Give the backbone structure.
Amino acid sequence: MAATSLGGVTLRRIAEVFEIEKRRYVDAHPRSLQRTGHGIAGFYDGVPMHWMKDWSMPFPFLVESAQGATLRDIDGNEYADFCLGDTGSMFGHSPPAVAAAIVRQATQGLTYMLPTDDALAVGRLLVERFSLPHWQIATTATDANRFALRVARAVTGRPKILVFNGCYHGSVDETYVRLVEQRAVNRPGLLGQTTDLTQLTRVVEFNDLAALQAALAHGDVACVITEPVLTNSCMVLPAPGYLDGVRQLTRAAGTLLLIDETHTISTGPGGYTRAHGLEPDMFVLGKPVAGGVPASVWGFTDEVARRLDAVRAQTVPGGHTGMGTTLSANALALAAMRATLEQVMTDEAYRHMEQLAGVLARGLQDAVESCRLPWHVARVGARVEFICAPGPLLNGTQAEAAHAPALEQAIHLALLNRGCLIAPFHNMMLVCPATTDSQVARLQDAFSAVAVALRD
Ligand SMILES: Cc1ncc(COP(=O)(O)O)c(C=O)c1O
């Protein structure tokens, strides 16, 4: 029999709420409707990037400007922004120090394939902050992951990587493998894929050390790549001791451990890694590391560097390594990164983010409980998420099952109509250094109103 409810809410009520909110959105965005409602001319499918159509609204609004935690559209609407560019602006839109660095660099050349003074500072700052001695700069977290995995395979001489079911590490082909009924399968939807990725990648559930041990026992895994908290499906936190277990098992198997902190940098100035004393062989951070200017960093240990030197000594000097992209480590990115690391990602900023995110999480949980909805709230530092299913979630399979797309779409649109923007692909709400108490209160009130409306 077909389901009649989702996340404890009837499908009828979800559809009613969505219709009401859709009309409200259209009424509040007449100018955007005129300019984007029929697609933006010149772009395939009407948008510069296809995921701009994945938001809950019937058509995207045009952004006029954004500053701190506030975003304005061309229709005169103002939003408390809890999406923050899906973490790209985790530290607020145009932090003054980053804007000043960009202005300074803008008149001195933007890219020349040579280091500037900022590179000297960034090298020191990365070593100090993340406690790894060797770093490289790339342009996206996807690139950084791809390059780090390449190095892992080169230094171990092993062909495979291992991912956790439900993971996301950017558009790195080998990570697009899922578990379906205990079998590894290529993730559906990957366009133009001609190789069977399951030949390159092992996949096991998060929080299952026995499965990890069995997968590593084949002796062919170069690297385990993971976020310390799975953030890209519904949020899955590590069970106590789990990440220590991952470290022990990878070491015993001669497999490198890559921690991707691109989202979990929400935890603190040194990411989840520093806050929880993790000991990765490789570390990746993208998106917010240059305050929203495209840039990423990847670092590794002395041991990896020593092995990399040995491999490079045997390869053709000057040959193509498979790592690159011309604009990586450009002068503008390094100027923005230096400003971000020195002046924006500060202890003080994180104290504010942590405190206010705690307030937000408690407020949302109270609303869930008072409406008796079978939902829960999860949090990793400044990143808060409501999940329309009971929790906590244990692994990727549970996280996928917890998704309630139609229900989430109605909630997202209703929040937006109440002046709160949250991330489109998950139910993520980020608190940045500029987020105010009143913005958090606005989101809590909006969320309560929507929860009540869905209960009617
Ligand atoms: C954990 C993680 N790693 C890597 C990426 C890829 O980042 P980018 O799209 O900037 O390459 C993402 C993107 O959401 C991510 O969540």
Remarks:
- The two ends are 24 Å apart (CA to CA).
- The longest strand covers residues 221-226.
